[in-house]
Design a protein that fits this description.
The complex is a heterodimer. By secondary structure, chain A is of the alpha/beta class. Chain A has helices spanning 14-18, 68-76, 115-119, 121-126, 130-143, 159-172, 189-205, 217-223, 254-266; strands at residues 25-37, 41-53, 57-61, 83-88, 91-92, 100-103, 177-181, 209-214, 226-230, 237-242. Chain A has one domain: P-loop containing nucleotide triphosphate hydrolases (Rossmann fold, 3-Layer(aba) Sandwich). In chain A, a hairpin with a 2-residue loop joins strand 4 (83-88) and strand 5. By secondary structure, chain B is mostly helical. Helix content of chain B is 81%, strand content 0%. Chain B has helices at 2-31, 39-51, 59-90, 92-105, 114-121, 125-149, 153-161, 166-203, 209-218, 222-250. Chain B is globular and about 70 Å long. Classes of the chains: A alpha/beta, B mainly alpha. The interface between A and B is medium-sized, with 28 and 22 residues.
């Protein structure tokens, strides 16, 4: 890790100055710089600034390998940026925390634990009593529609069901922000549509701040209150859209399609 | 097709066994009993060894001698090798300290230890157990090492995000993730311990299954040699089955795979 410049909020750059003041954001990152030493110095993020408001459904859209996962890892506290600042509720992020729950593209469920144990993992970390753990786990297992599968091992579940467990695990740990890293990226198209719909239903019932990362333009428009578009590497914030189409949104709605075309025009193609 | 579901695995399993037996009989018929005694003769020899003591001990007593050596060495290897391997896999400092000396010892075949083990521990039990111990130990260390070294980083990330302490990260993530590799090590370590006990008993000793084989050679009785070999094969199979059962109990999530 290189030396980390601790920027303060007063030292906002020109891009960030235009954005709303940080206090409006529950989770905020500013001037993020992350690079990896591969064959060459590979800059993934360079001066990236982004904020999400409380209970907002923010979609971060970007082409493959543009640094979306790295961005989420920084926000989660799993990765330390070489420069820049991540702040959560006004305090700098120093490491991972269940307050910022993460839903992984590849599920990342513990194969040796049952659905119930996986969902209750975060609660056990916090030292919640067993009876309470089971109650909360049962609640979120029901929320994602997996009642009856409490004792099943992940290996026995389909991709869609695994991701439901991932979602329930993130919810059950009591997060204020849900970070979702292309959660439906590994699912087939039909399951994906169904899961998108269901995610919104769940989110309506239990509102949380969501940062949802995807490379799928349709998915972004279908889900987001706001969509921000990342450029190809090194990623910068290219453009953003407020989506005001009321839910449930239809993929064939003319407004939806027009927006889709607009975003496509700005979307960087990467091989 | 309904018949297939229940008896098909048994049928498949018996295929290779009967083919081997058939081959055995054919070779016996063609090359004669001096080259390869027939299976029935070997079975009779096993029964005879059960009843008539060889060098003052029956077959059961010889088996117990070998088994005791293997188990003592195996237990010792588990108690010392597993923790060392887990530590090496999980803790980079520990790995860097231990790896160089381990790499030197690793390629030395356990059998190469026989002379020095006899010099240090005498021809009695000590040296035999030591040789088996070296064989099983190396394998157990290697397997528990790779098991914890190559835990899916994604699972570690997930555990960290949902707030795992260092202790929980090790006990609830690294160890269960390493279990399949550890069980593979337990299986191979067991085989290695058997290999070594035979080698040790071939060199010196008046008891054990290895002694039966050597005695068969000295007395010029091929059926006795084969009797010893068959006993080892059956015993090894039983022990391996026991370990698989243990794995099913400890790793319920792998039941379909084991």
């Amino acid at each position: 890790m290189g030396t980390r410049k601790n920027l303060t909020f007063e030292g906002l750059g020109p891009t960030a100055a235009k954005a709303a003041p940080p206090s409006e954001y529950i989770l905020f990152c500013q001037g993020l710089m992350v690079s990896f030493q591969l064959l060459d110095q590979l800059k993934v993020l360079d001066g990236f600034t982004l904020g999400v408001k409380e209970n907002e459904f923010l979609v971060v859209l970007g082409p493959g390998q543009c640094g979306k996962t790295v961005l989420l890892n920084c926000l989660a506290g799993l990765q330390e940026p070489q420069a820049g600042l991540v702040s959560f509720k006004g305090a700098p992020v120093r490491g991972p925390s269940a307050e910022r729950g993460l839903v992984f593209q590849k599920y990342a469920l513990f194969p040796w634990q049952t659905v119930e144990e996986n969902v209750a993992w975060g609660l056990k970390s916090k030292g919640t009593a067993k009876a309470e753990r089971r109650r909360i786990a049962a609640k979120y297992i029901e929320l994602v529609g997996l009642t009856g599968f409490e004792k099943a091992y992940p290996q026995a579940l389909s991709g869609g069901m695994k991701q439901r467990v991932g979602l329930a695990r993130a919810y059950a740990s009591g997060p204020e922000v849900l970070l979702m890293d292309e959660p439906f990226g590994a699912l087939d198209a039909q399951t994906r549509y169904a899961m998108e719909k269901e995610l919104l239903t769940i989110w309506e019932k239990e509102k949380r701040t969501v940062i949802f990362v995807t490379n799928n333009i349709e998915e972004a428009i279908y889900l987001g209150d706001r969509v921000v578009l990342m450029s190809k590497r090194p990623a910068k914030l290219k453009k953003e859209w407020e989506i005001t189409i009321p839910h449930p949104r239809s993929y064939t709605d003319p407004v939806f399609l027009a927006l889709r075309q607009q975003i496509s025009a700005d979307y960087d193609l990467v091989l | 097709m309904k018949f297939k579901s229940q008896f098909y695995p048994l049928f498949l399993g018996s295929l290779s066994l009967s083919a081997a037996l058939l081959l055995w009989i054919i070779v016996n018929q063609m090359a004669g009993p001096r080259f390869l005694p027939n299976p029935l003769k070997v079975f009779e020899e096993i029964v005879r060894l059960f009843k008539t003591p060889l060098s003052g001990r029956t077959l059961i007593e010889h088996v117990i001698f070998s088994l005791r050596r293997v188990m003592a060495a195996y237990g010792l290897a588990i108690v010392t090798g597993l923790p060392l391997g887990l530590m090496m896999g999980w803790n980079a400092t520990c790995r860097k300290i231990v790896m160089p000396i381990f790499e030197i010892f690793r390629p030395i075949p356990p059998i190469a230890w026989i002379p020095i083990a006899i010099l240090w521990l005498g021809v009695a039990e000590g040296s035999k157990i030591y040789i088996c111990y070296v064989g099983a130990f190396i394998i157990l260390v290697l397997n528990s090492f790779t098991g914890t070294r190559y835990v899916d980083p994604l699972l570690i990330q997930a555990a960290k995000v949902f707030g795992a302490s260092k202790k929980r990260l090790f006990l609830a993530v690294a160890v269960p993730a390493a279990l399949p590799s550890i069980f593979a090590g337990l299986q191979n370590g067991m085989s290695m311990a058997w290999m070594c006990v035979l080698a040790a008993e071939l060199v010196g000793g008046r008891e054990g299954v290895g002694f039966i084989i050597i005695q068969g050679m000295n007395l010029d009785r091929p059926e006795m040699i084969l009797a010893g070999m068959v006993v080892i094969g059956v015993l090894g199979t039983v022990l391996a089955a026991f370990l698989r059962l243990l794995e099913k109990l400890i790793c319920p999530w792998r039941r379909q795979l084991v």
